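Q: Protein A?
A:
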Amino acid sequence: MSTGGARRARSRSATETIACAAVNAALEPYIRAILVLTTSGETARQVARFRPCVPVIAVTRDAQTARQLQLHRGLIPLAYTRPPSATVLRLSASLLSSAPAGSPYAGAGRLSPDPLDAAAVEWQADVDARFAHGIAEGRRRGVLAPGDCVVLIQGPRGGAGHTNTLRIVSV
């Protein structure tokens, strides 16, 4: 019995789908780099697996993850050493524990924080600071110049396994 559509060889995670989309976006001639915020390094490894034609700058808070990422082709790992604020840590913890017990999203947190919540604003400021660090380091290393476009990859909350957002910005 046919389902009417083509069968997939295997399913992909959201992280793998975002990584594939970022590499496809990097095929555009105006994209100069892919910048990834990563906790465990998995998102950066997924991007590198697709062999993008541009450098991949991976920003992580974990120095060990940064060292491990040096083993992958095309990755420029950066350890971001500025600690997150207490508010950002509380927001991350509350997002991870806010789903009702027994729901399919238990432990996954809300899908997105309340945009008017002050903690959510601080979370986004922390994300922007890490992106700014990656862009500044990319400029310092000669990978990026003013006016270049970059693909940014992030998740809506801290921790591994939450990557689901891709943006293209001009630096």
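Q: Protein B?
A:
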Amino acid sequence: MDKYEVIKLDNQLCFSLYALSREIIKKYKPLLDEHGLTYTQYIAMLVMWEEEKIAFKELGKRLHLDSGTLTPVLKKLEAMELITKYRNKDDDRVVTVELTKKGKILKEEVTHIPIDVYKLCKTDEVDLINLKEGGYLDLNIKNPQTGEKFSDDLEVKITRVGKNYTYEVLD
């Protein structure tokens, strides 16, 4: 076995997850285009619909986005009148993000999107609903030691813990 087999792109778990994520996000695009949203704006709105009012810093943590990425997303949502941003009157270092009436109306218009995406992604190979709810991720990448697909040797268990997900490689 070639010692460099392990560093081939097709043998990288991270790349397989990245590619899968990009493909799923592509499924969202036409559905989000109807509402003038990008995927990043959509996930920001998902948090806003849950919280209605949240500190900028907390929103960034929930989305795993730094302020340099989150700021332009929120500026666009504010220009669309879906949210408002303002400094906390007790501590001007804290920026609060709040859902507007127009943002609340949009919530009613997008409830079909998760269901539509599940339908678009449903295949015999991967049950995305079980994946999301803590199922196992079937990866189509090769084990550098055996040359066989990892899906034959490796399972990744995804478990929801509160509002976050943990990933565990199973033997």
